[in-house]
Write a structure and sequence with these properties.
By secondary structure, the protein is mainly alpha-helical. The protein is built from 7 helices and no strands.
């Protein structure tokens, strides 16, 4: 839910829905909760189970929030605008999302690269020194 109390719905892919359909539920209404106890208590139980799973898998620093991070980064890498990712995460403001995920916005990096190349094209020295070279034309794996 958003901090405003508004629910956020995230559509699941068909293969996930099918896998859940084949998974026994903990209660009539929930797959992973009996409905008893508190939400915080249930979250703690699952946190411990996931920590054990991360440990068995040899994943150092594993934590449940990684799933949320992966979800966000995959959407951004697929070109979903950060404003929509922010909504799916339930953030009150896109600024919250930007603080954590701006480095993963491909369109943002593409715009920054284009701005740099445009500036270089207007610099007489850069034009002369890099005319036709990979430093300006196409080589993107060098970071200064």
């Amino acid at each position: 839910m958003q901090k405003t109390g508004e629910p956020v719905h995230v559509k699941l892919p068909k293969f996930v829905v099918n896998a859940l359909s084949d998974t026994p539920r903990s209660s009539e209404y929930y797959w992973f909760w009996t409905g008893g106890g508190t939400v915080e208590g249930n979250a703690d139980i699952w946190r411990r189970k996931l920590n054990r799973l991360f440990s068995l898998a040899g994943i150092k620093g594993g934590h449940p929030h990684r799933f949320r991070d992966t979800f966000s980064v995959e959407l951004l890498n697929a070109g979903v605008p950060i404003e929509r990712v922010s909504t799916l995460l339930g953030h009150e403001s896109v600024r919250v999302t930007e603080r954590s995920y701006n480095p993963w916005v491909k369109s943002r990096q593409d715009r920054l690269d284009a701005d740099l190349e445009s500036a270089w094209a207007q610099d007489p020295l850069a034009v002369v020194l890099t005319k036709g070279t990979q430093e300006v034309h196409g080589k993107r794996d060098t970071v200064n």
